[in-house]
Amino acid sequence: MNIPEKVYCRTFQTALHTALPFLPYRKPKLLDSINEVPHLLRQKHIDCVLLITDPSIRKLGITRPLEDTLDKSGIHCIVYDKTVANPTSKNVETARVLFLKNHCQAIIGFGGGSSIDCAKATGARIAKPRQNLSSMEGILKVHKRLPLLVAIPTTAGTGSEATLAAVIVDSKTRHKYPINDFPLIPHYAVLDPEVTRSLPRHVTATTGMDALTHAIEAYIGRSTTAETRADATEAVRLIFANLDRVCRDGNDMKARRNMLHAAYLAGSAFSKSYVGYVHAVAHSLGGRYNVPHGLANAVLLPHVLEAYGPAAHEKLAELAISAGLASRADSAKDGAEAMIQAIKEMKLRLDIPDTIPEIKAEDIPSLSRIAAREANPLYPVPVLMDAKQLEQFYYDVMEVSS
Q: Are β-strands 165-169 and 148-153 bridged in parallel, bridged antiparallel, or unpaired?
């Protein structure tokens, strides 16, 4: 990246960081069980809700306990269960029509990040009926209050239940873009480990690595606060202490609750301090090839951390100490290397691959431009890179034919 571009990016990031204390960040109110939701809705005088989820979660019956308890409480539940991985603008528009047709008063996003992001974007379109989603891309373009939004995560990874972001894929162009604004932060988040119990091991693993990526990128960036550093540090500690446990025994509900809490903390951290190039590259892969976001993050994470070099050593070493991977007697370089090695070893234990076979060499220049456009100037990364420099990450994880 040339010097004028670097100056522009850092000036933008400094201004945003300076403004942090004056911006209306908030955390959702937490509920421990889906059984608390009907009482909440009755308190708000809500008698019809739109439940947004995906086909597999509905087919597995994971939403059934909530649907039943709402029904017993006299609350009508309209279900939209067609959300796809990497939710599309078509998903959002279909859900919006259902909400309006049935005179719903609130939205429940039930599922992984895809369903919760779809719920957020649906709320944004309801709040701004004359504005299409693509015009909300970027930061602070929603402005208006959404209908009551409750997020129920079924994966301990995305942290979408705590963030001001929704990531959407344009159904026509396949362009994947973030929408970031304070009204998108859910009003309530339900951290109920029971809804994560039947999650397959590989999904538990990759979504857990997604949460780890959120925490690390938020911590090593240049726009942290005391609160985001504390949240990210605790999230990293919890993930290293619990992700292996829950992947070995999916019925370890204490570990599942700890992972939900870690994902929530990591989401809270990056909602203020942002992420980095791992996410920018992963989003481009999700948009082009529909690669699951957690998987893409897990594969890319060690490569990007190594590329940051000494600029990230001190902070990575601090995280390594908090996770019990290094001691204060170690040098910053040794601590950072211990953290990166621990990530690689965790990936190996969890059977997460080192490559993404969908990547095509001829797509890499356009993919890297998409990633650079997302990240620069918004993401306060340790080392700034332009599109040409980002190309290397795609080559690093591209499957090479023998």
A: unpaired
